[in-house]
Amino acid sequence: MVDVNYSNIARAYRWLEYLVFASTLQRARLSHLTAFCQNLTEIDCPSIAVVGDGDGRFLLELLKAMLDCQVDYIDCSPGMLVVAKERVGDDSRVSWSCEKFEEMEGKVYDAIVCHFVLDGFDCEHRNDFVEVIAASLNSNGIVLVSDFDSTAHCGAAALVVAMQWFFHACAGVPFVRVTKPDDMLLAQNMTLIAENEWWRRAVFSQIWKM
Q1: Termini Cα distance of the chain
Q2: Which H/E stretch holds residue 74?
Q3: Rounded to whole angstroms, how far apart are CA atoms 117 and 36?
Q4: Which residue, 18, 56, 103, 143, shows the most beta carbons closer than 10 Å to its own?
Q5: How sure is the predictor about 1, in pLDDT bands with cuts at 50, 70 and 90?
Q6: From residue 96, how far is each of 44, 101, 109, 172 by CA, in Å?
Q7: Is the Cβ–Cβ distance between 119 and 148 less than 8 Å?
Q8: Other CB atoms within 10 Å distance of the CB of residue 189
């Protein structure tokens, strides 16, 4: 993965997202929140990695929904980290890390959240990233993932390309073909347990379980 840094647009990111997608992406982030929490109810203080959450909007809702948890917030953009900290405030349940998740070692989680992260990887490195996710999960761990599928229809492909042009200029996001990671997750012995789609399948959100 190339170096991607959203710091230059961190404070404006929420409004830029809304300008293009209205509330769709936030709906995707939150659509499985209840089911996500329910899958962790039998675990005492579950450990959760929230990867690339950007400005922390999902993290804030997660902390409201799950009072007993320990969260590692991991984002490689310092500016996004600052905005997320401001949004969430001083919360002892959250540990903050400004680094790339795929370069971290040794920690295993009950759940990993990756909203709109996989679209920053080309196919080869996306598969490597999914392997890191699987290696970082407990035996019954779950993954919550939301992203784009540029193969859903021609309009989706055009939208993703336009989005990549903008974020390539602002944050260094690479031009990659974005598809659902189903085959990669299935190869890691994961099972799809829930899925929602929007914009004629161009935007999706899924829960997978080991």
Answers
A1: 25
A2: strand 70-74
A3: 18
A4: 143
A5: very low
A6: 21, 12, 15, 23
A7: yes
A8: 9
